[in-house]
Design brief:
By secondary structure, the chain is mainly alpha-helical. The protein is built from five helices and no strands. Helix 2 (46-66) packs antiparallel against helix 4 (87-134). The longest helix has 48 residues, at 87-134. The protein is flat. The relative contact order is 0.08.
Length: 145
């Protein structure tokens, strides 16, 4: 990279960094108030949240079963190789342990996602009750008519 090119890249980066930041807003046309993309209201469809949470749960269950097929035979093979004096046995044990660790991490992530959707559904239901009970009846009537 030539020195002039380096200086130009630094100058471009400085200009991007000094661009003003816009808070509490969205670019025109990106949705939200003032944009053309929608009304700006948060819309939550309980059935969609339920489907996504269920999908994450099913993925966790299926992956838990499918990822465990080779575990017992891999562990047995690693012990047999190690007992026969082959270094490959220790390496296979390390691979086995790493696979189990990564599998647990992925299953935990799926469970976390599923639980988050359940929590979101419950919280949304509470929010709906709070909004409905905090509005005066006459105000609700004006929205319905």
């Amino acid at each position: 990279m030539a020195w002039d090119e380096w200086e130009q890249l630094k100058s471009d980066a400085a200009q991007r960094a000094s661009a003003p930041m816009q808070l509490n807003g969205a670019p025109p046309g990106a949705g939200g108030p003032g944009g053309s993309g929608g009304s700006g209201d948060l819309v939550v469809h309980d059935d969609e949240l339920g489907k996504m949470g269920n999908t994450a749960y099913e993925l966790r269950q299926k992956f838990g079963v499918d990822s465990d097929h080779a575990r017992p035979s891999t562990f047995t093979a690693s012990i047999d190789l190690f007992n026969d004096g082959l270094d490959m046995g220790a390496a296979l044990t390390e691979l086995h342990d790493a696979w189990n660790s990564q599998t647990k991490t992925l299953k935990d992530a799926c469970a976390h996602i599923s639980n988050h959707f359940d929590y979101t559904r419950a919280q949304h239901a509470k929010d709906q009750v709070q909004v409905a009970t905090s509005m005066p009846v006459s105000k609700i009537d004006s929205y319905i008519k």
